[in-house]
Write a structure and sequence with these properties.
The relative contact order is 0.05. The protein has a domain of 65 residues. The protein is elongated, with a radius of gyration of 26 Å. The termini are far apart. By secondary structure, it is mainly alpha-helical.
């Protein structure tokens, strides 16, 4: 078959697919009848009954038919939760970003950040990994970073929000997760003699995730990396910082040749 006919056939198939999707959307909108407040009530009732598919259908139709109504604006917030509970992660994040972009001064914009943080928070570890207690410290925590960023924005910009307390609690978990990853990378570099890389990751961990349990090992790696790089003054300073913060814990993860000022 000539190339031009293949191209025309592909365009025809794409056009038919587009018409099919448009028809489906049109049918969904026709199925939801009534005034804005009525549609909102039906959708909200479905949401409260955990009928998330029905709620999503109603809220989407409400937004499409009455985009500037008060009911539609409230429906956009409810829709975030419906997407989240229906495990439609990408739709929830896209809707949250759109709401934040279009309503930066809305009194409930903190809720959009909260839902966005929750979506990424729950993607940091799936069900099978929880069941088998998989160690995630060596995995790149991209979703954890996104979740932390969303919660951090919420806490910093809306500290009095009703969602701020829970966001702070989740940030502690995420902080520890991110610190564990930085230390895992630093440990990897140390084992391979890449002391500059190890020092960089360990130092970043100490500076960015103060209070995380992984800080103890990060300081150990920093001291040993400084020692390996013949930066003895900095190694001694790090040893002093370690001794001040962990005076009663003799456990040492990384073993190096002992020096008079570096006990690891």
């Amino acid at each position: 078959m000539p190339l031009v006919f293949r191209f025309l056939r592909l365009l025809t198939l794409l056009a038919l697919l587009g018409l099919t999707l448009a028809a489906c959307r049109s049918n969904k909108e026709r199925d939801v009848q009534g005034a804005p407040d009525e549609i909102y009530k039906k959708s909200h009732d479905a949401l409260r009954a955990s009928n998330y598919d029905g709620a999503i259908k109603g809220y989407e139709a409400l937004e499409a038919r009455f985009p500037f109504s008060d009911a539609a604006r409230q429906g956009k917030l409810d829709l975030l939760y419906a997407y989240y509970r229906n495990h439609e992660a990408e739709s929830a994040v896209d809707a949250a970003d759109q709401f934040i972009r279009e309503n930066p001064t809305h009194p409930q914009v903190a809720y959009a950040y909260y839902i966005k943080g929750l979506v990424y928070f729950e993607r940091t570890r799936n069900i099978l990994e929880r069941f088998f207690s998989v160690d995630l410290s060596s995995r790149p925590p991209s979703d954890a970073r996104r979740s932390f960023a969303a919660f951090q924005t919420l806490v910093q910009q809306y500290p009095n929000s009703e969602y701020a307390h829970d966001a702070r609690r989740r940030m502690i978990f995420l902080r520890n997760r991110l610190a564990d990853y930085e230390v895992a990378v630093a440990r990897y570099y140390m084992k391979r003699g890449a002391y500059v890389g190890a020092l960089s990751r360990a130092k970043y961990c100490v500076e960015a995730y103060d209070g995380a349990p992984a800080i103890q090992e990060a300081l150990q790696i920093m001291g040993n990396a400084y020692f390996a790089l013949n930066m003895n003054d900095l190694a001694q300073q790090t040893a002093q910082v370690y001794a001040e913060n962990f005076p009663d814990d003799p456990d040492k993860v990384i073993k190096k040749k002992k020096h008079w000022y570096w006990p690891f």
